[in-house]
Amino acid sequence: NAGVMQNPRHLVRRRGQEARLRCSPMKGHSHVYWYRQLPEEGLKFMVYLQKENIIDESGMPKERFSAEFPKEGPSILRIQQVVRGDSAAYFCASSRMAGASEQYFGPGTRLTVT
Amino acid sequence: GQQVMQIPQYQHVQEGEDFTTYCNSSTTLSNIQWYKQRPGGHPVFLIQLVKSGEVKKQKRLTFQFGEAKKNSSLHITATQTTDVGTYFCAGGNAGNNRKLIWGLGTSLAVNP
User: Fold this and answer.
1) Exposed (0-12), middle (13-18) or buried (19+): which is B75, by Cβ within 10 Å?
2) Is the CB of B98 less than 8 angstroms away from the CB of A99?
3) Nearest to residue B102, comparing CAs of B11, B18, B19, B1?
4) Which one, A17, A35, B29, B93, has the greatest CB density within 10 A?
5) Looking at chain A, which residue has its C-alpha nearest residue B97?
6) Can you tell me the distance from the alpha carbon of B99 to that of A100, in angstroms, rounded to the nearest whole number?
7) Along the 112 residues of chain B, how does pLDDT read in single tens digits?
8) B91 touching A, CB under 8 A?
9) Which residue of A has its CA nearest to B88?
10) A-chain residues within 8 Å CB-CB of B31?
11) Are A95 and A102 in contact (CB under 8 A)?
């Protein structure tokens, strides 16, 4: 019974490159959430998606960041033209039901921008 | 906007001492959830409370949801080194159930 899977676990990018983070939700879960966490800080909500739809992207920066959750395949968080300030841990979580139901987190992707 | 405040931000205790973290919302919550994140790990769901005044226990952990559904607490009795980590509360907005509103967490350190 696989949990939430994220890859890669660690990603190093140079400034200006693109970062693609992948998340496969738990089996039977159709709701996906992305969070960003800086060292020693809390979780910052970024975006909430359901299959093929963005439900809430109020936490996403207006530029360079995008997310999708296609009908087939994992959810993708894309960061274009990365800057040093994008270095953080990015967690994906999934839930079976909509909205404020319990969430199950993946192990995270640690992004380092050099 | 709606906020969930969590205190204290940090807590150091001696092993065997008790520990409590508090969560307060500016608005009524539909539910409250608690998560634990070990150092270097990811948040792990612990429990959800839904009813006003609800109390739930998991071994040495006691979770409470206030009567007004605006506050919650997590109490750990006789802490152990395995309790080390950051404890987050997250509340559902009673008016807009789209996403959880997260507290900033309480980091617990336990001295053996």
Assistant:
1) middle
2) yes
3) B1
4) B29
5) A99
6) 5
7) 668 999 999 999 999 999 999 999 988 999 999 999 999 999 999 999 999 999 999 999 999 999 999 999 999 999 999 999 999 999 987 766 667 889 999 999 999 9
8) yes
9) A42
10) 100
11) yes
